[in-house]
Specification:
about 575 residues, Chondroitinase Ac, Chain A, domain 3, 5 helices, Glucose Permease (Domain IIA), about 40% strand, mainly beta, twelve-stranded antiparallel β-sheet, about 10% helix, globular, twelve-stranded mixed β-sheet, disordered N terminus
Length: about 575
């Protein structure tokens, strides 16, 4: 029943939005500088589509961010990762604009948020929903200042437009927030896939790259293919805009077979719930091996993305002996600039020279069933529908490392990984944690729950895991000030914190015995306290900070300074 409702909701979503016209003249640009993008809407990210556009801020922070239309602040959120400091403005025309990675909010909003942070004694606020009339804004009003907070890789403004009722994100370019673009997309690679057991391509049953050559005017030509049975294609493609060198995502991808449309998708709009199915749009195995995203021009059975339109046979091509086929794959950007790959195919029955071996490794997963396996004190448990289809996986435990297949298979849900730790002493267990060791030199802490004789974690990634021990305390370094120093000219206190084991878990700072807000730049490992937060009393002050890692190792330091 849930599956039927999910499918119907996506169908309704598609019918509502496929022909929708958006107000192009209602909004202004959120910055008062020329719009230059470092990322476009719908770009392929890790496990999700990019939900907005990233507007460059000329490498600076602190630029004025404007409300794009009249409305009210309906939501505020401050988090360590993700959008960092973000503000949401609801407009009367049924849409909500979102502004992320901000340095700070406008004064009245900043005071409101700081009061909540000090009340909670926590930098991260969770979602804050002010009253509807608390922060009304006018078009062009400064609501915040651009920054680099959260999961940002450099100063920029992340900007979104959402349907207020459904929370579906919509390409902001449909609302007139655009940038000059006269450049056609660029094809990097063409891949071909046998999609049936009897399919053959150039005397083999394996997927491979097909050489392509640019012949001018947006046209690419592929080498001729001999094939039989059901096959599909995939492309690695990017787009560039006029004012920036960034390799951005495309807007739409289409495939014609002998002039007939077999495949089409675009990224005009989508829901957050379906974004995870990006892993079925791309060749996930190829991406995990080579870090290159190849978009399929056919749809797999488990893929529930709503971005597809006018599919014929789900984009799969049945090649018949004796017939010739002319396939065209067309990539377009938002402005309609396009590039095309032309692929000639001849239908020919072929005796296979290279046959892909069937995967029959020891542990079979039936996707619709709960599966659980135990080996050498390690247990893996997969809820039903963790995998998109039935698969075979490898599972070995060697020298304490649990090797759970490899991370080339996309999964839909988290599974549980459990280690039996009964052989360790209580003292040893206190300093142990579960780590991902796909890259042995850089073990990654997994959120480890401890219960009597077992440690367990949940994850959505296959790969290598083991138990690690962390006996080293975090390191604390005061920046730009020393003990018993006058620092009247400083506007902030900065502290660098690092940990070489399980990683930083939390910190707590006090000034003259009272909790103070320290903003953490995790990219630089620097905590910052702003003296504007609280008025100092007297000239002698004691600053104290306590930092803990993920297994409880704790470092505490205090310093005396003088400031009026």
């Amino acid at each position: 029943m849930k599956k039927i409702l999910f499918t119907l909701s996506f169908l309704f979503f598609f019918l509502c939005y496929s022909q929708k016209k958006y107000p192009k003249d209602s909004y202004i640009n959120p910055l008062d500088i020329p719009i230059v993008l470092s990322a476009t809407f719908g770009e392929l990210r890790s496990n999700h589509f990019h939900a907005g556009i990233d507007i460059k801020t000329q490498g600076k922070q602190g630029l004025n961010v404007f409300a794009v239309a009249d409305g009210y602040v309906s939501r505020i959120k401050v988090q360590q990762y993700g959008y960092g400091k973000a503000i949401y403005i609801t407009h009367s025309n049924g849409y909500t604009s979102v502004y992320g990675h901000l340095k700070k909010f406008a004064d009245s909003i900043e005071r409101y948020v700081k009061n909540i942070q000090y009340k909670k004694k926590n930098y991260q606020t969770g979602n804050i929903f002010p009253k509807k009339n608390q922060f009304k804004v006018k078009k062009g009003q400064v609501i915040a200042f651009s920054g680099d907070t959260g999961g940002s890789s450099g100063p920029h403004l992340h900007f979104e437009i959402r349907d207020t009722k459904t929370e579906h994100v919509i390409n902001p370019m449909h609302f007139g927030i655009t940038t000059p673009d006269t450049k056609a997309p660029t094809f990097n690679a063409l891949h071909v896939y046998p999609l049936g057991y009897n399919a053959r391509i150039n005397k083999q049953h394996n997927s491979f790259k097909v050489p392509i050559k640019y012949i001018g005017k947006g046209i690419y030509k592929a080498d001729r293919i001999s094939a039989s049975g059901i096959i599909g294609f995939g492309v690695n493609v990017f787009d560039k805009l006029n004012r920036a060198p960034n390799r951005n995502g495309i807007y739409s991808l289409e495939m014609l077979v002998n002039g007939k449309k077999y495949y089409y998708h675009d990224v005009a709009t989508f829901s957050f719930a379906e974004s995870k199915y990006l892993n079925l749009l791309i060749d996930y195995e190829y991406y995990k091996k080579y870090r290159s995203k190849v978009q399929r021009t056919y749809k797999t059975e488990a893929n529930k993305l709503s971005i597809y339109k006018d599919l014929l046979n789900n984009g799969k091509i049945n090649i018949i002996e004796g017939l010739n086929y002319n396939v065209e794959i067309i990539a377009k950007d938002f402005n309609g600039n396009k590039s095309t790959i032309k692929i000639p195919i001849v239908g020919k029955e072929i005796n296979t020279l290279f046959q892909k071996q069937l995967d029959t490794t020891g542990y079979k997963i039936v996707a619709k069933k709960f599966e659980k396996f135990t080996k050498n004190n390690v247990t893996i448990a997969f809820p039903k529908n963790t995998f998109y289809e039935d698969v075979y996986i490898d599972f070995e435990v060697e020298k304490g490392i649990a090797k759970i297949h490899n991370p080339t298979i996309p999964i839909d849900r988290t599974y549980t990984l459990t280690f039996n730790v009964s052989k360790y002493t209580e003292a040893q267990k206190e300093q142990m944690y579960i780590a991902n060791v796909d890259y042995p030199k850089y073990p990654r802490y997994q959120n480890t729950r401890k219960r009597d004789s077992i440690f367990y974690t949940t994850t959505k990634t296959l790969g290598n895991y083991t138990l690690k021990s962390d006996k080293i305390k975090p390191n604390i370094k005061f920046l730009y000030f020393k003990d018993k120093q006058w620092i009247s000219s400083l506007k902030t206190l900065k502290v660098k914190i690092t940990d070489i084991g399980s990683g930083i878990h939390n910190w707590r700072a006090t000034l003259d015995g009272k909790w103070v807000l320290m903003e953490f730049n995790h990219k630089k490992g620097v905590l910052t306290y702003n003296f504007n937060d609280k008025k100092l009393v007297g000239s002698k002050h004691i600053f104290k900070i306590v930092v803990s890692d993920n297994v409880g190792n704790t470092t505490e330091r205090s310093i005396t300074f003088f400031k009026k």
